[in-house]
Amino acid sequence: MAPFSKPETVLKQAEGLVSVGQTHAALQSLTEMFSSKRFRSTPLASLEPIMLRFIELCVELRKGRTAKEGLMQYKNIAQNTSVASIEVVINRFIQLADAKVQEAQEKADKAVALDVDDLEASETPESILLGAVSGDQSKDRTDRALVTPWLKFLWESYRTALETLKNNARLETIYQQIAQQAFKFCLKHQRKVEFRRLCETLRLHLANVAKYAHQPHAINLSDPDTLQHHLDTRFAQLNTSVELELWQEAFRSVEDVHNLLTMAKKAPRPAMMANYYEKLTKIFLMSDNALYHAAAWGRYYAIVTAIGGKSEEEMSRLAGQVLVSALAVPVGTHGEDGEESAKGKNARLSSLLGLTKTPTRAGLLREALSRNVLKLSPAVVKSLYNVLEVTFDPLTLCSSVAPLLKSLASDSSYASYVPLLQHALLSRLLSQLSQVYSSIKITKLLELVVPLKEVVVEGAASYDDEQIEAYVMGCARRGELNVRVDHAAGSITFSDSPFATVEDPSSSTSAANVNAIQASTSEFVRTRLGNIALTLHNSLATLYPPAVPTEEEQQAKFAALAAAAQAERKALQIRRALVARRRELLSELSVRKEKEEASRRAEIMRRQQEEEARRAAQQLRNKEVERARKEIESIRVEEAKKLAQSLKEKGTLKVDIKDVESLSTDNLMRLQVEQLEKEKKELNERMRVLSKRMDHIERAYRKEERPLLAKDYEQQQANDRAVFEETQKARLQAHRAAFEADLETKRRLARMVEDVKQMKQTISARRGEEFAKRKELAQKNMEEEKAKRRAAVLKTREEERLRREEEERIRREQEEEQARLEAERLAEERRKEEEEAAARALEEQKKAEEAERLAAIRKQREEERQQAREAALRQQQREEEALRRQAERKAQQAAAAAAPARPAAPAAETGGVWRRPAAAVPSRADTATPPRSESPAAAPKYRPGALGGGGWRAREAAKAAGTTGTASGENTPARPSTPATPVPAKEPSKDDDGFQTVQKKWGTSRLGARRAA
Fold first, then answer.
1. Residue 172 contacts by C-beta under 8 Å, 6 or more apart in sequence?
2. Residues 283-337: tens digit of each pLDDT
3. What average pLDDT score do residues 91-97 get?
4. Which strand (E) or helix (H) includes residue 864?
5. What is the rounded distance in angstroms from the CA atom of residue 234 to the CA atom of residue 229?
6. Beta-ladder partners of 439
7. What beta strand segments (E) does 446-550 contain?
8. What's the chain's average pLDDT?
9. In the structure, what pLDDT confidence band is assigned to residue 824 with cuts at 50, 70 and 90?
């Protein structure tokens, strides 16, 4: 693979190759770029010119396959980023191919015009002979030589474009455009075979939509725009097939359109449906299906009247065609095929027309009359309708209708209906005759039909006796008429069996529906019971007339009838909606089943193909293995044979060639090695003997030649000296001859020296003058150029100076303007800053005033709080003083009560140790444990005699008093703590034994703090 180059480099290289005539090499260089791995990463802006040039080269060289490969790769790169680029490339491809076709046609026309040597001679003998042999005209041969190759290439271009753009939602628009251009190509060049292939290709692409639905950018047929594009393309296909008169392809196109219409969620445009039904009329007319042809005309007329926009003349002609097509429907449309197949075919055709059931002749006539067709039809058509459907005159029926048929045959719009009208007229004639006669002569019938034979239509068969008889037998076979033909008597007998039935009683031309002058036996039997019932009902109504209802009852009945009609109408609407929905669901289900079936078939086919490919590959591998094994075996046998043959030829071993297959190669190699070893030993022995012999011979030679070497050396020296002397002598003679020749040449040339000098001086003088003139002229030109240059430089400098001055002036003006704007901006900023400063000062002043007011309020509150605190402190001191006094009183009372109970033993008797008397030990219940404070202060260390007065009893009394005080103080509010007031020390009494009661200072402070809080 060639190294990757830049796109610009590749394009320049290709252009260079094209300029030197190497177009194939240029195309090859561009093709190699597409095969590079870095091709996908190249930007589209660089790839599009290369792609356009690549397409031009492919068209010029008619390389369709190469163009297809390049377009496929370019589509894979550009479809996600730039769809417009793909559209440009495809359109360019088609335009170039179309231009080549037009150019080839022009060349062919010119070649045909210039091919005639003698314009007066109509044909030459050569042209007559060539035409007789080949069967082609000159223009046909020229077209086949020049135009046909380019037509083939243009067709391949359309197919390549469609294959490139298929099944991609982003490329759907350009895909439909290319398809319609291909239709125009087929229509312009009358390419019917290619048109069929194009239609099959489009159907295949549409069928593959469901297969590739899971891929990105897949086509979604539920999108209204996408479906409309497909409908437009199918209608163009339908129009082209009708213009090319490919009626089978047109019918397939109609089916394609119908399938797409069933998938559409909204109704198509009326103009499109009108075109659809108009093409159906042509298709059904060409297929001789008069019934559905008339039904298609009825649908077309309904849409045209709804759209409007037609002139009265056009509407009259259209109404005449609708009525004539309905009158031309023959009685009994049953074919010779089976009933089930006929029903399936009719249901299929009815679905194409959007009908729920198979149409009938009577229904078509009723619908035409309801749409006021008879009033708008021409006079000839009205007369034909009156004769066929209104009047009853079998003897003059054909003679009355014949002039009308002739006038219709003269009009191109109605000429195609004349054969069908003849069949309908004959059927009506036979029906009316069966009402009047029981039998009739065949000759009489043929006389009545004679006026029909005079009506001759171009391109239609004559209406002879055999056709009339065949038509009568056909009616009898289908059951439309009960007749018997007696050829011996030459008569036709109309059977009037009471139990005979008519196959098609709903047809307006059947015997049951004709305005009969008398009822037939079968009609009498069929309607007898109904007539009796009607007579009895009328008799009862006469004998027992019903009571006349009152006005209220009538109104109630009317209301009930109106309600029932409304309910029935709603039920009918609901039923119609349900039927329509069921039909849609069935159609969707059928489409889904078809898609699933197609997918299943495709999957089965793919699996079968894979299985076949796998089986074929396995068989191929087995064959290759077997072939290799056989080849190896044959090679081994051949080598063994060759080895055995070589050994046999050497004669050292006796080997039988027939037994080679029984010997292995190893055995043969062992035999060969033994043979080689034996030969090697024999060769060494012979070489030893030969070398010894050569040694003795060489010694004898040298011994004999030693005396002769001295004589040979002396003789050689004498010969060498003689040769040297002769050579030296010849060299001296040659030098002497050359010297004399040179002297002679010098003497001859010495006479021309002066002439050469004069010629040299003349040439030098002339060239000097020319040089001086040229130098002067060059100097003059140089001065002129210097002057021009100087003037140009001065002018340029002046212009530059003026430009700089102008720029300086503009710059100064701009700077002044900027300075002015800057000054205005600064002034504005200063004004804003001053305003902001004033606003801030005012705000600060307000804040200061507010702060002063708040500070005064705060100070006033602090003073009030301080006064309250001092009042609380004084109140606390008074309360503490009262509590202290109360505690002292209780302590004194307790000490006074406990003094007589203590023994008065001196400390010396006890040895200085205090003993608790047994009677003085209080019980556990008598001592109250003081409550634990939240944060009591640390108790001071006990020191005997540190506190004055009181013993343990005083302490116990003080403890009890403190407990009581604390308990009573728990319910008092907390007050802020104040420093404890110092209590004066008491004098120890004489009853104290060295212990002192400790005051609970922390309890009072905590109580004060709680009260303050």
1. 219, 226, 229
2. 777 777 778 878 888 888 888 888 876 777 888 888 888 888 888 786 654 444 4
3. 82
4. helix 753-898
5. 9
6. 493
7. 483-486, 491-494
8. 75
9. very high
pTM of the model: 0.46
How wide is the angle at C-alpha 639 spanned by C-alphas 633 and 641, nearest 5°? Answer: 105
- 524 CB neighbour count, 10 Å cutoff: 13
Cα–Cα dist 325/419, whole Å: 12
Q: Is 491 helix (H, G, I), strand (E, B) or coil?
A: strand
**Which is nearest to 930 in space by CA: 1003, 881, 1008?**
1003
E runs forming strands in 442-538: 483-486, 491-494
- Please choose, from the candidates 881, 981, 1001, 891, the residue with its C-alpha nearest in 3D space to the C-alpha of residue 938: 1001
Assess contact for 303 and 319: CB atoms under 8 A: no
How many residues are given for the chain?
1013
Q: Which two tokens mark 1002?
A: 């922390």
Distance separating alpha carbons of residues 484 and 526, to the nearest angstrom: 22
Rounded distance, CA 604 to CA 58, Å? 39
- Residues 6+ away with beta carbon under 8 Å from 220: 169, 226
Separation CA 483–CA 430 (nearest Å) = 10
Q: How far apart are CA 276 and CA 352, in angstroms?
A: 10
Neighbouring-strand partners of residue 861: none
Token pair 């495809």 is at which residue?
90
Compute the distance between CA of residue 910 and CA of residue 914 in angstroms, rounded to an integer.
Answer: 7
Residues 6 or more apart whose Cβ sits within 8 Å of residue 180: 232, 233, 236
Long-range contacts of 151-155 (CB under 8 A, 24+ apart): 151/101, 151/189, 151/191, 153/59, 153/62, 153/64, 153/97, 153/100, 154/97, 154/98, 154/100, 154/101, 154/185, 155/185, 155/191, 155/194
For 134-172, give the DSSP string.
H---HHHHHHHHHHHHHHHHHHHHHHHHHHHHTT-GGGH
| Banded pLDDT at 605 (limits 50, 70, 90) | confident
Q: Are 442 and 521 in contact (CB under 8 A)?
A: no
**For 525-559, b where at least 16 C-beta lie within 10 A, e where not — what string?**
ebeeeeeeeeeeeeeeeeeeeeeeeeeeeeeeeee
- The arithmetic mean of pLDDT across residues 581-588, rounded, is 85
Question: In this structure, what token pair is assigned to residue 246?
Answer: 């490919």
End-to-end CA distance of the chain: 101
Q: What is the DSSP string of 426-441?
A: HHHHHHHHHHH-SEEE
- Read off the pLDDT of residues 698-738 as tens digits, 9 standing for 90 and up: 888 888 888 888 888 888 888 998 999 999 999 999 999 99
Residue with tokens 């002979």: 129
- HSE at residue 434, side-chain half, CA atoms within 13 A, is 31
Q: Give residues with Cβ within 8 angstroms of 63, minimum separation 6.
A: 27, 57
